[in-house]
Specification:
seven-stranded parallel β-sheet, binds UDP-4-deoxy-4-formamido-beta-L-arabinopyranose, Rossmann fold, alpha/beta, two-stranded parallel ribbon, binds nicotinamide-adenine-dinucleotide, 13 strands
């Protein structure tokens, strides 16, 4: 059974391709390599023994997207990862984000309609919840006005999919990821942040390896037990496994509605200091950090209620925070050897 994985050479996409192949799916990746590299295909093959099919083009190009669907008329389902994801950059370049993230989705949905493809899994984000009034965040926790163009593309995309399927033979699963971190245990694939990372985990590993002088901890005056902000960090391999289950659910007709929404997290919140301590514990390295003021736009705390995904998908995140931080470090060391 052939699955199209857009953005499949990227961070979450590449881990998902590995899990799909392990379950016997044939994978075809479309990626324009705007935030990933072609070597990822060989690195996937080192893990699974099979290089996925690959087509390089920009999904905002409607003609190329339609030509692709005509050529590959045996695609059974789509997992749509391809998007830009840097929150700060989206504030600087909103149109670039709206164009890339929304036009590519329009082309994918149109391609599904034109070519009779019924099932799509979409990468959404916990960013749609903002700072929830009540924690943990459930799938029916009210969506709040997005605080960045990036976040807004996820909200609009969810609406676009929900509205489109009403009159079409399309079904969708919207997966709201919390904070994916870590890497495959082989260290053949992982996250490849360009330039100075904004996210916590790559900043920690780059500090530990000596690329950065120290980690800046953004704020220790939050209303949390140790004053630092709390997130629900999830191992990227656990996240990847959930995509395979989502695809299997749709193709096996097990879904209950045309659109289903699931939180993907562990259900546990950890503070920035707890992540640092986990990194130190799992690697034996003492991390250089300084406490600074809050980062503008950051929320105080969020973690997921994962009970719906646990019961309906039969999926549960299994890996511990120490496994996440240890695997991120193994990946950072593997990157250093490659250079
Ligand atoms: P990533 O940048 O590593 O992967 C995205 C891939 O899509 C890249 O390989 C990029 O080259 C490709 N791409 C982007 N625009 C494209 C286009 N127009 N045509 C073809 N390919 C294109 O990002 P990721 O962390 O793997 O994220 C995957 C998805 O998950 C994104 O939709 C992202 O918004 C979402 N998400 C990520 C996180 C996170 O923290 N990483 C959290 C929540 C949601
Ligand atoms: C985590 C915590 C920081 C860096 C972002 C996006 C969100 C979603 C996930 C895609 C926060 C603190 C960080 C540093 C720090 N992505 N931190 N020093 O902000 O929860 O979410 O990624 O959908 O949309 O906004 O993730 O990794 O940037 O930060 O102290 O150098 O680590 O303040 O509390 P965030 P993050």
């Amino acid at each position: 059974m052939k699955i199209l994985v857009t953005g499949g050479t990227g961070y979450i996409g590449s881990h998902t391709v590995v899990e799909l192949q392990a379950k016997g799916f044939e994978v075809i990746i479309v990626d324009n390599l705007s935030n990933s590299s072609i070597e990822v295909l060989d690195n996937i093959a080192k893990i699974t023994g099979k290089k996925p099919l690959f087509e390089k083009f920009d999904l905002t190009d409607s003609e190329k997207t339609e030509d692709f669907f005509k050529l590959h008329n045996d695609i059974k389902a789509i997992i749509h990862f391809a998007a830009f994801k840097a929150v700060g950059e989206s504030v600087q370049l909103p149109l670039m984000y709206y164009r890339n993230n929304l036009v590519s989705l329009i082309n994918i949905l149109q391609g599904m309609i034109n070519n009779g493809i019924r099932d799509i899994v979409f990468s959404s984000s916990c960013t749609v919840y903002g700072q929830p009034e009540r924690l943990p965040a459930r799938e029916d926790t009210p969506i709040q006005k997005a605080n960045s163009p990036y976040g807004n593309t996820k909200q609009i995309a969810e609406e676009m999919i929900t509205e489109t399927i009403v009159n079409e033979n399309i079904r969708a699963i919207l997966l709201r990821y919390f904070n994916p971190i870590g890497a495959h245990h082989s260290a053949f694939i992982g996250e490849l942040p360009l330039g100075i990372p904004n996210n916590l985990m790559p900043y920690i590993t780059q500090t530990a390896i000596g690329k950065r002088d120290f980690l800046r901890v953004w704020g220790d005056d939050y209303q949390t037990p140790d004053g630092t902000a709390i997130r629900d960090y999830i191992h990227v391999v656990d996240l990847a496994r959930a995509h395979v289950i989502a695809v299997e659910r749709m193709v096996a007709e097990k879904g209950k509605n045309d659109v289903e929404v699931f939180n993907l997290g562990t259900g546990n919140g950890f503070s920035v200091m707890e992540v640092i301590r986990s990194f130190e514990r799992s690697t034996g390295i003492k991390l250089n950090f300084k406490i600074l003021g809050r980062r503008p736009g950051d929320i105080e705390q969020v973690w997921a209620d994962t009970r719906f995904a646990n019961s309906e998908l039969g999926w549960k995140a299994e890996k511990t925070l120490d496994e996440m931080t240890a695997s991120a470090w193994k990946w950072e060391k593997a990157l250093a050897v490659k250079k």
